[in-house]
Design goal:
Length: 371
C-alpha cells in the first residue's frame, strides 16, 4: 500500500482574507513527490523545503487565523502512483492546491485530474516540455527543458564539441530532454542515440558499441543520480576519456560520493545552486542536516510553498481565483529566483550554470546565457 504522510502545520501569513471565510478549519494543500524509490533524495529535499516554509509562516499566526494541513503523497516518480495520489488529494482530501508533482511523469499524470477539478498544481521541479501544455491550472517554478537543452547545445557549440552521443532512459523526463536536445543540435551532430529501459544498471554492451564511434561528448541522460553515476563509472572503467555531461538530476551529492575519482570532470548544466553558507542553507541544514541530493531542491520546495501561501492569502481558496492570481503575479522574491509566470504557467527568466566535479565536489564553472 502506498504510504501517505499527513503533516498538520499552521501556515501563517499576514495577507488579505482567504475566500472570505471566518472559520478556523484547516486549509488543505496537497504534496506529490518521490518519497521512496530511486529519486527519493530529491523528493525528500523538496518536502523538507516546503515544511521549512510552513514552519516560518506558522510563527506569524496563519492565513486569517486558519491552519494549513500539508498532505504529502508518495508519487514514486511514476505516472500510476502520481495519478492515484492526485485522485486522493482532490476527491478525498479536497485540497485547495497541490505542491507538485516533482518528477515530470508525476506532473503529467496528475495534471488531467487537477485540471478537471480546477485545482492548481505548482511543480517545483518538472521540466518536460509537455508540461507547458498540460492545462490551465498547471504551473511550474522550474524551467522547461526546451530552454535547458538550448543552453547545452550552445555550450557544445562554444566548446567545439561537434559529435554528440546520448544514452537516455525511457522515462518522461529523460526522453523529453533527449528529444528537446535533438531539436537544438546541428544536423548530423548526434552520432549515437540509444535508449535503455528504466532501472538499467549494466551499460557495458552499449559502451562496447560506442567504442566504435568517434564522439566528443556523452550526454548521460538517465533518470536517477544513482544510475547516472553507474553509467559514468562504467564508461571510465572502459577507458573513455571524453567529456560526460548531464542535466539537473546529475547535480547531486550522491554521484561523487558513490564513485569517487570516476566522477572527476563530470559536468552538469543546471539552474543556479544555493550556497550552503547562505541564509536559506543555514536554516535548512540547521533543521534537517545536509541535503540528500542538492540544497536547491529544498529551495524550490520552499519557494513553491511560499507562492501558494501568498496566492491563497490574497485570492482565497477557490481554484480559479488562485490560478488567476498566479498568472498576474508580477514577481515573487524567492530564495532561488524572482518568480513570475508566462501565459502557459511556465516560470520566466531563470538562468543556467555549468557545474563540474572537482576534488570530489561540484563547483560552478560559468554562467550560460540562453538567447
Amino acid at each position: 500500500m502506498k504510504r501517505s504522510l499527513v503533516l498538520p502545520l499552521l501556515l501563517a501569513l499576514g495577507l488579505s482574507a482567504c475566500g472570505g471565510s471566518s472559520n478556523n478549519e484547516p486549509i488543505k494543500i496537497g504534496f506529490i513527490g518521490p518519497l521512496t524509490g530511486e529519486v527519493s533524495a530529491l523528493g525528500k529535499d523538496i518536502l523538507h523545503g516546503a515544511q521549512l516554509k510552513l514552519d516560518e509562516l506558522n510563527a506569524a499566526g496563519g492565513i486569517k487565523g486558519r491552519p494549513v494541513t500539508l498532505i504529502a503523497e508518495d508519487g514514486r516518480c511514476n505516472a500510476t502512483d502520481a495519478a492515484n495520489a492526485a485522485q486522493k488529494l482532490v476527491q478525498v482530501d479536497q485540497v485547495v492546491a497541490i505542491h507538485g508533482g516533482e518528477c515530470s511523469a508525476e506532473t503529467l499524470a496528475a495534471a488531467p485530474i487537477a485540471e478537471a477539478a480546477k485545482v492548481v498544481m505548482l511543480s517545483p521541479s518538472s521540466s518536460n516540455p509537455d508540461v507547458t501544455k498540460a492545462g490551465d491550472f498547471i504551473f511550474r517554478d522550474y524551467p522547461s527543458d526546451a530552454l535547458k537543452t538550448k543552453a547545452m547545445a550552445k555550450y557544445f557549440s562554444d566548446k567545439g564539441l561537434k559529435k554528440v552521443a546520448i544514452i537516455a532512459e525511457n522515462a518522461d523526463f529523460t526522453v523529453g530532454f533527449r528529444d528537446s536536445l535533438k531539436k537544438d543540435l546541428p544536423e548530423g551532430a548526434l552520432v549515437f542515440n540509444e535508449t535503455v529501459e528504466p532501472g538499467t544498471k549494466d551499460f557495458r554492451t552499449l559502451l562496447t558499441r560506442l567504442k566504435t564511434i568517434p564522439f566528443d561528448v556523452l550526454v548521460d541522460d538517465v533518470n536517477s543520480p544513482a544510475n547516472i553515476a553507474l553509467l559514468l563509472q562504467q564508461l571510465r572503467e572502459q577507458g573513455f576519456k571524453q567529456l560526460v555531461i548531464s542535466h539537473d538530476l546529475g547535480d547531486s551529492l550522491e554521484i561523487p560520493k558513490e564513485i569517487g575519482k570516476a566522477a572527476e570532470g563530470f559536468q552538469v548544466i543546471n539552474v543556479p545552486t544555493l550556497d550552503p553558507a547562505g541564509d536559506f542553507g543555514k536554516k535548512f541544514i540547521g533543521k534537517y542536516g545536509e541535503p540528500q541530493a542538492n540544497l536547491s531542491w529544498g529551495g524550490y520546495g520552499y519557494d513553491v510553498m511560499g507562492i501558494l501561501a501568498q496566492a491563497i492569502g490574497s485570492a482565497g481558496t477557490e481554484g480559479p481565483a488562485i490560478r488567476d492570481y498566479l498568472y498576474k503575479l508580477p514577481s515573487y522574491d524567492g530564495v532561488i529566483a524572482k518568480v513570475s509566470f508566462d501565459s502557459n504557467g511556465d516560470i520566466k527568466g531563470i538562468p543556467y550554470v555549468l557545474r563540474e566535479v572537482k576534488n570530489g565536489a561540484f563547483v560552478n564553472v560559468s554562467n550560460i546565457a540562453v538567447n
